Amino acid sequence: MIKVGIIGSTGYAGGELTRLLLGHKEVEIKWYGSKSYIDKKYYEVYQNFFKIVDNKCLGDSIDELSSMVDVIFTATPQGFCSSLMNEEILSRTKVIDLSADFRIKDVDIYEKWYGIHHKIPKLIEQAVYGLCEINRSNIKNARLVANPGCYPTCTILSIYPLLKEGLIDINSIIVDAKSGASGAGRSAKIDNLYCEVNENIKAYGITNHRHTPEIEEQLSYAAGNDVRINFTPHLVPMNRGILTTAYASLNSDTTYEKVKAAYDKYYDEEKFVRVLDKDVYPQTKWIKGSNYVDVNFKIDDRTNRIIIMGAMDNLNKGAAGQAIQNMNLMFGIEETTGLIQVPMFP
Amino acid sequence: MIKVGIIGSTGYAGGELTRLLLGHKEVEIKWYGSKSYIDKKYYEVYQNFFKIVDNKCLGDSIDELSSMVDVIFTATPQGFCSSLMNEEILSRTKVIDLSADFRIKDVDIYEKWYGIHHKIPKLIEQAVYGLCEINRSNIKNARLVANPGCYPTCTILSIYPLLKEGLIDINSIIVDAKSGASGAGRSAKIDNLYCEVNENIKAYGITNHRHTPEIEEQLSYAAGNDVRINFTPHLVPMNRGILTTAYASLNSDTTYEKVKAAYDKYYDEEKFVRVLDKDVYPQTKWIKGSNYVDVNFKIDDRTNRIIIMGAMDNLNKGAAGQAIQNMNLMFGIEETTGLIQVPMFP
Amino acid sequence: MIKVGIIGSTGYAGGELTRLLLGHKEVEIKWYGSKSYIDKKYYEVYQNFFKIVDNKCLGDSIDELSSMVDVIFTATPQGFCSSLMNEEILSRTKVIDLSADFRIKDVDIYEKWYGIHHKIPKLIEQAVYGLCEINRSNIKNARLVANPGCYPTCTILSIYPLLKEGLIDINSIIVDAKSGASGAGRSAKIDNLYCEVNENIKAYGITNHRHTPEIEEQLSYAAGNDVRINFTPHLVPMNRGILTTAYASLNSDTTYEKVKAAYDKYYDEEKFVRVLDKDVYPQTKWIKGSNYVDVNFKIDDRTNRIIIMGAMDNLNKGAAGQAIQNMNLMFGIEETTGLIQVPMFP
Amino acid sequence: MIKVGIIGSTGYAGGELTRLLLGHKEVEIKWYGSKSYIDKKYYEVYQNFFKIVDNKCLGDSIDELSSMVDVIFTATPQGFCSSLMNEEILSRTKVIDLSADFRIKDVDIYEKWYGIHHKIPKLIEQAVYGLCEINRSNIKNARLVANPGCYPTCTILSIYPLLKEGLIDINSIIVDAKSGASGAGRSAKIDNLYCEVNENIKAYGITNHRHTPEIEEQLSYAAGNDVRINFTPHLVPMNRGILTTAYASLNSDTTYEKVKAAYDKYYDEEKFVRVLDKDVYPQTKWIKGSNYVDVNFKIDDRTNRIIIMGAMDNLNKGAAGQAIQNMNLMFGIEETTGLIQVPMFP
Hints:
Four copies of one chain form a homotetramer.
Chain A: E1 2-7, H1 12-22, E2 27-33, H2 42-45, H3 62-68, E3 71-74, H4 80-84, H5 87-92, E4 94-97, H6 107-114, E5 128-129, H7 132-140, E6 144-146, H8 150-164, E7 174-179, H9 194-197, E8 202-203, H10 211-223, E9 230-235, E10 242-249, H11 256-267, E11 273-275, E12 293-300, E13 305-312, H12 316-330
Helix pairs in contact in A: 1-12, 7-12, 8-10
């Protein structure tokens, strides 16, 4: 059994981690970390776990924790994981960080976009960006995995084949993304109240959302060249789900068949990326509660652009599910273990 | 492996059956019946099953089906299962009917409340009412199980211990129930359109909802006496979930301790009925996607009444989950097989 | 023009007051009070008022304010209005208090249920309970009006004729109420976050909700006898609207015709209470944004009980609309002025 | 008083027309047309009008109607108005068509995108495109007004100043739009059921939505050159509201100041277009129930693109409100009459 500790177990991503790990047959959760609820029963915070989890919430004593478990998940605010992390901890346990602290290789970019001083930049180099479908072999050997952001996961996976195969103009990419409210986390803010989110749609983080440089870095690797994008997220009145609608200009000889072949090339063998049938487009309701990313595209001959769509559960493949997929890779067990949930509808 | 056929696999309850059965390690689905979508791929109706189920939808040729499978689930409109059923089919296969056709022992009451002529009343007697926590031993030997209605399951389980132990006035029971919209099924009616259900709450079936006699029959068995109730369901703008709030006058010497002891007596050993901690009350969000029923109560000394609450997923424990629980009992396998999903929140 | 000041103008009820008063042709708003947003433009808090209201938010200096305006609306937390109020203020201006401070005549009951020490109990006596349909003549002469609570307004108006005419057993009343989330106000609490309220229904304040004694007091006046009720409110995932479903046992000779006649007697001339046609029941979607209360009933011969339903917009007739209706009465202008909005659907 | 007839009064846009016209002090509604509900009381279809409208629904005998009223609103499916219309009717009454039949000047484009044979193309020329802020003077003299589509209204108004002033590359425009479910109308389709729309977001009409040529035609007039765009609408789980997020590349010398000046130039005097303050972006919740369009923009220096946002109530300014604004212009009365509702929040 893999012994697991979770720091930040009472956020929404932490709750999803717990839900999924409880169904993972090779895992035992040893530590439910939650600074806000220390000594409270975990199920008192999340009553869905009543009669299922009897543990109390613990703090974030990572030294103690690192001696007890094989892997730590940190589902904590930006800047927190890097403030705790050091070589010694990593010598004792593996770490999968669900925050952004180790995702961006250039620490200046991190510090500029996040407005946070990075406490331990020397660890960034060895951190592996945990987008399993793309970085699988590196993840297998990683001690420290930077679990990708929700928007980046959906965006990168839906555009990746086009850049790898050189089918689109890399200066033309625009990503218009839509997310449910769980992406904003479980903190008590007026903007996240029911009556503020319900019956409303808004854009936010326009031109400056923090996931922008993360997406750009990964797309640049795929393109072999610097990629700049426009990225505009929107808040949608629903609990879970991300839909990304991306636009790009096609390179001159790109055809439907070439694009289709590119998607098949990269995703035919992938369990969790489903390239939909022609003329069927992603909807978030079809992936809720699962680790799937549904993708598809349509070419507009009138404008010579391609519209690329991806749908994903932000808490699952966009956070906890992918973190477990990373764990499976890091521990050499079957990648899909604990992640074979059928999406729940309605 | 238990070979399974589903008639009515493309309704919401049918979809949930499929979702749950796919995770049941001793089951193989051989027949996806759906009159409306014959020859269409099942995943074309429900894209959540894309790359998971490759079967086409089939019709309702129950004779053919009964020779192929060990058990048939009928998730069909009222009157349909009874019009197909006969001794011969039951001699070849077990049947779990998710409709109301075999729930009510008195055929006159069925015909009056449902406005349907019952085609094969002689089978009603041998049908077993599939409320597992209460009828477990009979279910084990049944060929034909009448899977309980959603409101009845939640109502009966939350009130049952009080009647068994004689703690409340049996003439005083009032049930005010609230359900999400999936309970209304997947038929195209103006009343079920998004804009009609959203931002609204309404009562319906006031004094004449068809689940009333089903609840009364079962509560009467528990009380050992005829029970008449008021039952008022409401439509709530959410997908899944039922909350029942019931009211009853306490018998003269009823105390908190006696009531608590009654719940513990009947449910301490039950996996799927969770009696919540004191002062914690059921909410539908904590049971979504699972087979749990959460119950609790509060005594109002000012009025000498007890308020009893139950929360349940109408598609799961209220339909598909309970049907599988019945199947497990009928086939002598562990009752919880395939039903250990942790509720999904948010 | 009536000069108006609002204390607590940036809560949800305050926002609704502003919206409605802006459409009231005999009113001029002179003071947008909001402790939390002093010096901020009102439209920066509520962008719906952009280019409509240019005022800045002011504090709660009620002395200054009382010299400037003809009437003050206090849409503030319990205990606040009574802590500010005194004879001098009331000698200068009228006051309509949307909080509970002056609703309950027995100060002990107020202090017990609210857990607040009442600062100026001697003013309670002269305060008039502002349920216009019932207290119209007293309101006309009032200096201080206690604007009714949302649940009480809907509950009392829907049951009132039955008690006045002695048609029901006064010891049998059970009120099961359902409200949208705006009733919880605009404070940043985890329980009110979008993901906590959405896709959920729960009961709260079971046996101890503060609106209970307010309802009981008014129903007791109507019955001419002490009335004790069970009152259970529920939180429904929608922005606005209250539905009350009440149950009572009929007195022996009560018939449909007598009940119908009672409703007609009290409400035939009332503009804002709509007794619906037979077999048509209240739904919150039909009154959204308006000052209407829709009521109807159904008799259940099987149990000899009556089910009484009422639907109302909690922010409008349940708060701001009724407050304006009170103002109209207090200033001797047409009662419906500024309140003739057609309900908005969908 | 202006005598008004509505054909299609029981659709969502028809209901909004009724709601708004009832508050219009110079209008009298003489005809509630609704083929589906002939002889039924209008309030039986929409209970919000109970005790407000007592009329019965009538058919679509436009000849009879045209002799009775000063203006007819047709809120009917595509192809219907053009099948009824002729010179004689227009000689007797004015017509405001809320469908697409007379919006597109090139009948071939209409027939191609709509797949409908246009019955009376000769009337297209005299029809005036009723986007009031842009076509005001022509509307004043029109007999037949083509009321703009919902997406086009929001899109065109938010982009118009940029094209008029030549600030963006006309080949670079991408419009990603989001709409609430009332835009899909009140027809009973599975795709529009509550459980299908709730907790979901999807794109639809990708590359081929019918509003595309309408937007392109109007933007081309503004640019003085052919404009081709990408337009992708999305369905959002809410009742009302459209948000458009548009992207375009800036021409070389475009600055923030120039853009801001362009918006001010065209909209400073406009009552219903609100250019928001810097760094405040449109949200649908702030315009619900009103005739406002909120617009704003942000320049992304990194990509030299501008992001332009518009928010609007699809049933109000996007349909009924704008239709009334057109009527006011056509009858020479104050343009804002009956349209001064403050947006309703929450």
